[in-house]
Design goal:
By secondary structure, the protein is mainly α. It is built from 12 helices and no strands. It is globular, with a radius of gyration of 22 Å.
Length: 376
């Protein structure tokens, strides 16, 4: 369990985030030949960097005085997952930039089935080792299948200076840094509660209250997964971006309000039904966190994804760490004042602050495009 948790720290940097770079730079490439060159470039440098990152992971676990009972074999299996995870993500990004959305959807379905079937079979026959083998084999199968479909003879493994590999790596690394900060923010509350000597039972209830807000995050992800390439292709079209943001924010506002009303009215019943009477107190924390979810849906998520799609991953990364630091400070202050409710209030308040800043940055970008067009 520890190894699987530890490897998640390295996942955002697998392949130096070049799978994200392919989505951004491949989407704005004019011809299929250019898209193939960018894919080939990302594959080459991403695979090499994945090998290096996997080696760093192994060394960190083996020589980092990590007190876990395991074998080097299990460590290597986890490291291999970093490589095949990147290959799968890169190949799926390629399907998206060439608008093979149906094949992309099929690849996700097949991948889920592979993980289920191979995971169950591997665990049954080889226990933990079998599960880890299945976990790194499943994405490898998807990668090989996609490469076969897109005809690998068209790919050109060559260095092209004009493709700006440094810019692509920089973009991917900033996306990885932002993802890591977002992941850490999910852990800050419970870590702060433990640091401030809040009882273990209240921390357990707080974790329960967090499950539902985390679970509904898939809703905007489904929409934005299909729209990312379209946004990237229109990164210089201020009118399109403005209309798209308005439409998306309105859709997510309606969805989040429905979720919020349901939780406000039935939150206690939902908690008791899912986790039992002992966790009934968690419903109050759930309602506070849901306010943060509404703000995320309306402000942070649409604006942050637009910024990522237009190439401003650095802005998102900096904002994520501002949010992380702010959340840590507010947790310390608010937990002293209001106990475990303070942690929820801190998270909800930071959602408002980060969302408003993200909205302002996106507005600034859109206005700068329009101003440049007016000047020309």
């Amino acid at each position: 369990m520890f190894l699987q948790s530890f490897v998640t720290v390295f996942i955002p940097f697998a392949g130096l985030g070049l799978n994200y770079s392919l989505l951004r730079f491949g989407a704005i490439a004019k011809t299929e030949n250019e898209k193939n060159k960018i894919f080939s470039l990302c594959l080459k440098y991403g695979f090499i960097s994945s090998l290096i990152i996997s080696a760093v992971y192994c060394l960190a676990v083996i020589f980092g005085n990590v007190k876990i009972v395991t074998t080097n074999y299990l460590i290597v299996l986890n490291a291999l997952y970093l490589i095949t995870y990147f290959l799968k993500e890169l190949s799926q990004s390629y399907l998206r930039i060439v608008h093979k959305n149906k094949q992309f959807a099929y690849s996700n379905i097949v991948f889920s089935l592979l993980v289920l079937i191979l995971g169950v079979a591997g665990t049954y026959f080889l226990n933990q080792e079998g599960f880890l083998i299945a976990r790194f084999i499943a994405p490898l199968i998807i990668f090989m299948a996609i490469i076969y479909v897109v005809k690998p003879h068209k790919l050109q493994i060559e260095y092209q200076e004009n493709l700006e590999i440094r810019e692509m790596i920089k973009y991917g690394v900033f996306v990885g840094l932002g993802s890591m900060a977002s992941s850490l923010m999910m852990q800050v509350d419970t870590l702060a509660l433990g640091f401030m000597s809040i009882s273990a039972s209240l921390i357990a209830m707080y974790k329960v209250a967090c499950q539902i807000p985390l679970a509904v995050q898939f809703i905007p992800a489904v929409i934005l997964t299909t729209d990312f390439v379209m946004i990237s292709e229109n990164y210089l079209n201020g009118s399109f971006l403005k209309k798209y943001r308005k439409r998306l924010s309105l859709i997510l506002l309606v969805v989040s309000l429905i979720i919020g009303i349901i939780i406000l009215i039935f939150g206690n019943y939902i908690i008791v039904m899912l986790y039992g009477d002992n966790y009934a107190q968690a419903s109050n924390v759930l309602k506070i966190l849901t306010f943060g979810v509404v703000c995320d849906f309306v402000l942070k998520i649409p604006n942050g994804n637009i910024l990522a799609a237009v190439g401003k991953s650095k802005w998102n990364a900096i904002l994520s760490y501002v949010g992380l630091i702010g959340d840590i400070v507010l947790n310390i202050l608010f937990i002293k004042m209001w106990g475990w409710y303070g942690a929820a209030i801190s998270t909800a308040l930071m959602s408002v602050i980060v969302g408003l800043i993200s909205f302002s940055l996106c507005t600034f970008y859109i206005n700068s495009i329009n101003n440049n067009k007016s000047a020309t």
